Please model this.
Amino acid sequence: MNWLNYHQQAIRLVLARMRSNKMSSLMICLVIGVAMCLPALFYVSVDSLSKLTNHMQDETEISLFLKLDTSSNAVAEIDALLAKNDAIKQHRLVTKEEAWQQLQAKSESNSAIHQLNKNPLPDAFFIQAKSAEPEALETLKNSLQDIPGVEQVLFNADWAKRLSILLGLGKKVIFFISTLLTIALLVIIGNTVRMQILTQKDEIEVSTLMGATNSFIRTPFLYAGVFYGLLGGLLAIIIMISVIMTFNHSVSQISSLYSSDFRLSIFNINLFLTIIGIAAFIGWLGSYLAVARSIASIAQLQNSR
Amino acid sequence: MIQFDQVTKRYPGSDDVLKNVSLKINAGELVFVTGHSGAGKSTLLKLIAAIERPTSGTVLIANQNISKLKASAIPFMRRRFGLIFQDHKLLYDRNCFENVILPLHINGVSGTEAAKRVRAALDKVGLLHKEKAMPITLSGGEQQRLAIARAVVSRPSILIADEPTGNLDANYAADIMAIFHAFHQVGVTVIIATHDPLDMNVMQSRILHLSHGGLKPTMTGEQKIENLLS
Model:
């Protein structure tokens, strides 16, 4: 009960202080909001893009062309081998006859094809791998290459590789931007709390003289930091949603040109909770550091007087 | 209750402010600390109130050695004291009521119990009708009385006042002294530093006279007058 009262008092005090300094409180929250929304926006774009590539990689096929002189027995053996391979989701055989028919049907008007009197096409397997990871695909490709009777394994992984590297780069960029902004936020919140401590130096000094414990003095400031963080996090989410909504219009126009329905996803409750949680934690930490320093300096002041 | 044994206090870069001071103050005593300014009165009070630690020697408060107290125990030691400063140290961003309630919050008292005690303390110093007033609107004497209300609201067993009447005219000073006497009457240990040793109130009480950091032999005000006359 006592404990509850103590926290209630601290919260009431902090809210009263924030009410009496509405403008500066709003500024602090805004700074936190802007700083938090930058990495979050980055994250949303990279996240959406990597979902898109996953989707595309699912459609990636490996084409396995057999040697022209492969017997139908050997084809059946390879078929069985592919069925046993764990890395393969499904595979489909297109015999040279089928391929030949398809080609002829597609190119009725092309007399050059019709002039060929021998089927130049090999038997082929079209394989879908289980994993979409470029590296896994590469190993699968190599193992397929080693099967006797296989002429060529075709798999255009280069673009997937490039995109995946780019996304990796994007994730690193997010990491560094977030780290830098976190440091900036710590400094901003710490500085704000320090300013507030300066204006309340008398109160802290008098409270210490009356036997206030450090945690009694610290608690209101910690709550202030957490509140700034919470409000800043909310602002970050609001800014982020409005930016994404603005962008999504253009993004869907672009992606419709590529006949895709790609859009940036707006509502991601986990992301929102993470933003608010991190913001509140940064607020708490910034305040804690500032208060610890101030308490130490006030104690020193008292001792040297 | 309070016992100093060979206490010396030196601040960095200065001479000894207190030199080999030994004294004993019993529970329920009314003691005046006198001496010229710079004699170490404030330092003595700070040592008593566990605001400072001695450079050497021991300070015992309620049988606890201040020097050996853990930092985390100091706040609880300080709660035994009601402190009154010459410059009041009131908080000017809140009204009288809120100033007085601060020590109760520190002690974990809140709600109606706290409000009741704040009003009782304000009543004792005659400021009950000013509870909503801001301290800055009060006169010097009223501010000092408010500071006393704040010092006594948590019912400390020891009241320590540093030059409580220093800036006040005679009428106000007499008011303040009467309040201290009233607390002494109900069993509170009262320790008052004053530079004005010939104050009428000082006469009948025990005096600790400091001179250049040393304690002169203890005597009552009457003896002191005799000393001065002879």
User: Anything to note?
Assistant: The longest helix of chain B spans residues 170-185. Helices of chain B lie at 41-48, 74-78, 96-106, 111-124, 140-152, 170-185, 200-203, 221-229. Chain B has eight helices and eleven strands. The first strand of chain B starts at residue 2 and ends at 10.
